[in-house]
Amino acid sequence: MVMAEKKVRLNPRTLNYEEIEVGSYGYLRVIAVVVSAVVLFILYLWIYAGRLGGEMPKTAVLRKQNADWLAAAGALNARLGEYDRTLEALRGRDDKIYRSIFGMDEIPSSVRTGSLAGRHRYDAIEPHALRLLSERADAMLNKAYVQSKSYDELEKVAARIEDMASCIPALAPLNTDPKTYRLSSPFGYRSDPIYGFLKGHTGMDFACPPGNPVHATGDGVVEAVRSQFFGYGNIVVIDHGFGYKTRYAHLSRIEAVEGQKVRRGEIIAYTGNSGRTTGPHLHYEVIFRKDFVNPAAYMDLTLSPEEYAALTNIDK
């Protein structure tokens, strides 16, 4: 038998305190409230921890926000890819066309793909996707900067386009009168005249008596004057700028000196038989951007002696 508990309560009518008995139903009500709360809490855990894959509501919201951010980052990365392909197309035209036209060397890929940022700049950036975007954006910024500087260089060189026309080695190194020379060996592979094996010939050979005037084939600066007992013998090398150089070998007497500025048609030396030869001749080379090219592509050997003399200003 559950004993009733006595409590004192104010009677609002009589304004007196009266004793009342409280049965056990009050405790049961409290117990029912506690049990209900526990049941609701268990239901809450079952819904969010079970049905939502073990995630609490806040975690689920954060996961959705993260998924949305990753999707936006992916879209941004795709746009960066389009911009990068555009920069790559500009690089190709710059190196293969624009810089080649003006005889300028290609910009090394290590310079174009370098980063403006410090080596450890990205270490503190989280998450990983944001770090990759930052690195890619900086790399593209560097590419754009290098490309801009390249265009600045091209603009300066283009301003000298008239100079370029006179610097290209477009003249034959000897008078084109066919009575004064014989083309003894063209550019390309040939049988070596001394050893007999097949070997690349880096220039053109003009067989002629010693003492024929040798003319600079374009405006430039004398880069080297050398005398060798073997090999090329006595040589003159002229740097014409715009990627072009010319070499004149097996000379007898040399008129030019290192550092001298020469004009197209100016006499720089005389033909001879110095170095390793089988007879007197002029060996003439055209070097473009460090590669030997066929001199025949730059000269017209069909010019009459009078036309050649006019181009070299011999009679003026």
Which terms summarize this structure?
316 residues; alpha+beta; Glucose Permease (Domain IIA); 3 domains; 10-stranded antiparallel β-sheet; two-stranded antiparallel sheet; 6 helices; 14 strands; 39% helix
Structure description:
Helices cover 39% and strands 24% of the residues. The strands form three sheets. Strands 3, 6, 7, 8, 9, 10, 11, 12, 13 and 14 form a ten-stranded antiparallel β-sheet that branches. With 316 residues, it is an alpha+beta fold. The model has no long low-confidence stretch (mean pLDDT 81). A hairpin with a 6-residue loop joins β1 (5-10) and β2. The chain has six helices and 14 strands. The chain folds into three domains: 5-51; 77-159; 166-312, Glucose Permease (Domain IIA) (Distorted Sandwich).
CATH architecture descriptor text of the largest domain? Distorted Sandwich
Q: How many domains would you count in the coordinates?
A: 3
Mean pLDDT across residues: 81
Instruction: Let me know the number of strands.
Output: 14
Radius of gyration: 45 Å
| Unreliably modeled segments | none
Strand content: 15-25%
- The percentage helix is 25-40%
What name goes with the CATH superfamily of the largest domain?
A: Glucose Permease (Domain IIA)
Terminal Cα span: 143 Å
Class per helix and strand makeup: alpha+beta
What is the CATH topology assignment of the largest domain?
Glucose Permease (Domain IIA)
Specify the overall morphology: rod-shaped
Biggest beta sheet attributes? 10 strands, antiparallel
Level-1 CATH class name of the largest domain: Mainly Beta
Order of helices and strands: EEHHHHHEEEEEEEEEEEEH
Number of helices: 6
